[in-house]
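batch_manifest entry 22 of 60
target: Aldo/keto reductase
source organism: Lacisediminihabitans profunda
requested by: lab member K.T.
priority: normal
notes from requester: please return tokens only, no post-processing; we will run our own comparison against the previous entry in this batch. if the run fails, retry once and flag.
--- input ---
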Amino acid sequence: LAGGTAPQLTTIDTSNNYGQGLSGTIIGKAIRGTPPEGVLIASKLDCDPETGDFSADRMLRSLEQSLERLGVDRLPLLHLHDPNELTYREAFATGGPCEALSRMRREGLV
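--- output ---
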């Protein structure tokens, strides 16, 4: 990645769930805090693997974990991982994951 050996690469997608966070750590070491020009780094907000917690607080912790592993200050693209586990009401409720996404965008983290 850092040496530009994969010019066809345009997107790197990871998640805290991939390899229990090891995926993000490896990517972070490879990009050293600065993705190659033209490469988009995307990640996902994950529920708590033990409890299934998909709250806004959990989403914020998930983002913090991703940013730390990747060694970046913000992500240009962020998804909810397995949102099919939520109902529409849960996703958009006060204190839910969509509220967290809106906050992250306002704060410039996404």
